[in-house]
Amino acid sequence: MASVAQRVSSRFTGVLSLGVSRGNKSRSYYTYSPEPAQPLPNREPKWTTALEAMQCIKSGDTVFIQGAAATPVELVKAMTEYGKTSGLKGVTVCHMHTEGNAGYTEADCDGIFRSLSFFMAKNVRKAVAEGRSDTIPIFLQDIPKLFHQKIIKPNVALIQVSPPDQHGYCSIGTSVDCVRAALIHSKCIVAQVNPQMPRTFGDSQIHQSHFDFAVKVDVPLPEHGGEPATEVEQKIGSLIAENLVDDGATLQLGIGSIPDAVLAALHDHKDLGIHSEMFAAGTIPLFKSGAITNNKKVIHQGKTIGSFLIGTRALYDFVDNNPSIEMKEVNYVNNTHIISQNPKMTAINSCIEVDLSGQVVADSIGTRMYSGFGGQVDFIRGAAEGFDGKGKPIIALPSTTNKGESKISPFIKQGAGVVTTRAHVHYIVTEHGIASLFGASLRQRAYALINIAHPKHREALEKAAFERLKVMPSP
């Protein structure tokens, strides 16, 4: 019992330079809990400026940053400025996909900060490629374990929340994912309090008494999406919607324009459900038309389940104070056993490259890291293991790159990493058709994949397949 009390009381020790006591070290297990929704007696945050709050960061610390639409951009700016002017050294900054300028990864911050990504966004790719930042290959559902198993030990957490209600409760809003796990194990919490952050239901509640410092802002959340789909993306979306999505299916849709194109083609469907680590604004018309009801679900019936969001202002307004949507921890949402309980679980994800055996590359372009494992494998396997035997794991991609190179290749590029293995793959979809690979031999896979490649590349792929397999591809 004493060891538990010692662990959870650590949040109250350390920084006193701003005149804020972190509480009484003698607090017992019964009067203090690291559970974010549990109020801490007689404790309130210090309301201060973003720059002043950064004084809690010390050399050698590990700082966790909340991500996606909830990225606390003003706190990140202040952290970067403080690091440059205060003499900080050796600070690890860990995070999932974040938005905005990651100034702490620039060359002038080398030695001050080092980014550690669990899933990379565009803002850290250059730093990773140049060796100033790191990335961890990891399934999305496993990220909370990094904190619970003390592999990552955050000293400071920078988050963004909605303003406290009459009971002192805030919402971590659009990004629950691994945030709760990081908060439970962080010694100091700095909250960017923003009235433009939606209040969401599920696992998103945190009482303001857990904040050491709070900073008021009133700024829009980062936005993505809203652009019209290309003709190729529309074709892929239509193929999936018309051939692979059944009425009553539960959908998982990864990030990007292809999942959005699928949503745009689903208006004539009925009783669809959503169980997805993230979802986009394309779901809103389907909710309003009655195509999405979540009525056929056997768990969380009537509820849309997500873990983080990045989208348009319309999406943020839609989820704000909406009890039909629950944002939950990613180790639950992406748990394969939970996923597999959903009826007709249909997982739709995109990728960078597929070879003729069905190996899927989704996190890298050759040796250059691009993103991460994310939830692709979690949901591809969860759909395949569906309790009802009707799940559909789908990988969708345009047949060519913007430069006209085939995305279906004889071999994956040197240095590229396989995210979804050829044993996991069931359906591959391009604008030229659908390849069903489950139960297919290497010869049959090559034949099916060549038939959905761009016509101008099919002859070369057929020759390459023969050289690799010593037999002509055939059905």
Automatic annotation (TrEMBL):
Domain Acetyl-CoA hydrolase/transferase N-terminal: 51-215
Keyword Transferase set for record: yes
Residues in Acetyl-CoA hydrolase/transferase C-terminal domain copies: 311-465
GO biological process: acetate metabolic process
Protein family membership: Belongs to the acetyl-CoA hydrolase/transferase family.
Cellular component per GO, a single term: mitochondrion
Protein name from the UniProt record: Acetyl-CoA hydrolase
Pfam families cross-referenced by the UniProt entry: AcetylCoA_hyd_C (PF13336), AcetylCoA_hydro (PF02550)
Classification lineage: Eukaryota, Metazoa, Ecdysozoa, Arthropoda, Hexapoda
Keyword Iron in record: no
GO molecular-function term, one example from the UniProt record: acetate CoA-transferase activity
Organism: Timema cristinae
